[in-house]
Design a protein that fits this description.
The complex is a heterodimer of chains A (127) and B (176). In chain A, 72% of the residues lie in helices and 0% in strands. With 127 residues, chain A is mainly α. Chain A has a domain at 3-51. The mean pLDDT of chain A is 84. By secondary structure, chain B is mostly helical. Chain B has two domains: 3-86, Rna Polymerase Sigma Factor, Chain: A, CATH 1.10.1740; 106-175, Winged helix-like DNA-binding domain superfamily/Winged helix DNA-binding domain (Arc Repressor Mutant, subunit A), CATH 1.10.10. In chain B, helix 1 packs across helix 2 and helix 2 packs across helix 3. Mean pLDDT of chain B is 84; it is low at 96-101. The chains are: A mainly alpha (127), B mainly alpha (176). Chain A binds chain B through residues 7-8, 11-12, 15, 17, 42-43, 46-47, 49-59, 62-63, 65-67, 69-70, 73, and chain B through 18-19, 22-23, 26-27, 29-31, 34-35, 40, 43-44, 47-48, 51-52, 55, 114-116, 118-119, 122, 133, 136-138, 142-143, 158-159, 161-162, 165, 168-169, 172.
Chain lengths: 127, 176
């Protein structure tokens, strides 16, 4: 296996996610290969960099704002329920009505053209 | 009180306990969302959405199970929905991501400490790459857990992580 083929597997190897077979192949390859050893060192350095990211904390007043949002949503939902017919039901029935209408209209394309004569067709077939 | 005790109390009708649940986990959720969206305003909106979902979804939560993994899953899914709504994430596939797009301008980085540089480099990277790196390094998830969370094959996770780290190393080397 050459270096190009092994490059992707090196990341899984550094993460401890390589299978035992992959691990064996990689370790055999790494022993004599200086460029892949360098690649592993680079990956390991990036791992430690990526682990130390800036920790963010939630902004002030986050809890109160979120509780307000939840209450607003709840009130909206209750209002909608009080209105009687649920919006979901109206939307789905509109969808099925429109689909039915479209199918009804599109069926017209299977009808013959107005200039088509059934009588002539009948005569032709009998002849 | 533990998380599950708080949840049980909330489910019994004590609404105020939900405030405590938010207080206990707001920093964790905000940090996770920020690591994905890399923008304070969006991170705040998305983390609020997470808690709204948690509020309505807690009735289906099994209190015998730990709360954190469930919370994490909801947060990750909410972030994915956020990106999908914005059209940033057509699908989590291996679409070619332009190398030059969003490259970091080195002059912006003068005077920043190592942590901030890493943050800037990650911000300049495409969403897919940022997400897998955050899940792997901040959440310390295994490849199979990432695959499950993002609903993609494990092979795709391997390739995404490989490409993301390659891009990260290149961009980081260019500016340091």
């Amino acid at each position: 296996m050459n270096c190009k083929d092994i490059k992707e597997a090196l990341h899984a190897y550094c993460d401890g996610e390589a299978s035992s077979l992959e691990k064996k192949i990689i370790e055999e390859h790494l022993l004599p290969c200086a460029s892949c050893q360098e690649e592993v060192a680079k990956i390991k350095a990036s791992l430690s960099l990526l682990k130390v990211q800036v920790a963010q904390s939630a902004p002030q007043g986050f809890t109160k704002e979120t509780m307000l949002l939840i209450k607003e949503r709840q009130e909206y939902r209750e209002e909608r329920e009080e209105e009687g017919i649920p919006v979901d039901f109206v939307l789905s029935s509109m969808f099925f009505f429109a689909r039915g209408l479209w199918r009804g209209v599109s069926f017209l394309k299977y009808l013959p053209h107005p200039s088509y004569s059934f009588r002539r067709r009948k005569l032709y077939l009998s002849w | 009180m533990t998380d599950n005790e708080l949840i049980e109390g909330f489910l019994w009708g004590d609404e105020e306990l939900f405030e405590k649940i938010i207080d206990n986990h707001k920093d964790y959720v905000y940090n996770l969302c920020y690591s994905f969206v890399k923008n304070r305003e969006d991170a705040r909106d998305v983390s609020q959405q997470v808690f709204v979902k948690i509020y309505t979804g807690l009735r289906d939560f099994d209190t015998a199970r730990p709360f954190r993994p469930w919370l994490r899953r909801v947060a990750v899914n909410t972030c994915i929905d956020f990106f999908r709504e914005r059209g940033d994430l057509e699908d989590l596939s291996l679409d070619d991501v332009h190398e030059a797009a969003g490259a970091v301008n080195p002059s912006v980085l003068k005077g920043l400490v190592a942590k901030d540089i890493v943050d800037k480099v990650l911000t300049s990277m495409p969403v897919q790459y940022r997400m897998v790196l955050s899940l792997r390094h901040i959440e310390e998830m295994s490849y199979s857990e990432i695959a499950e969370s993002l609903d993609i094959p494990i092979g795709t996770v391997k390739t995404l992580i490989y490409r993301a780290r390659e891009m990260f190393i290149k961009r980081h080397e260019r500016i340091v």
